[in-house]
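RESIDUES AND SHAPES:
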Amino acid sequence: MHTVRFVHTGGAFEAENGRTLLSIADENGKSVQRGCNNGMCDICRLRIVRGVEHLLNAKTQRPFATSRVQSCIAEIHGDVDVER
């Protein structure tokens, strides 16, 4: 289990390896804007304050190149702090 902390709205939540940030936000009542839900529209982008190295792109299984990630395809593989 990993901890995802939502810095902008408060709250830290435990989540299983491979879950997306958007699904964790939804499950815990955190509002994140959304659009296509498949990484194409960029509406759901969040800024990672800490732990970007613990995220993989669900489509490519590669790390993200920046700290701004699409929450719908950002799979966690370690502790992460998220901000808008």
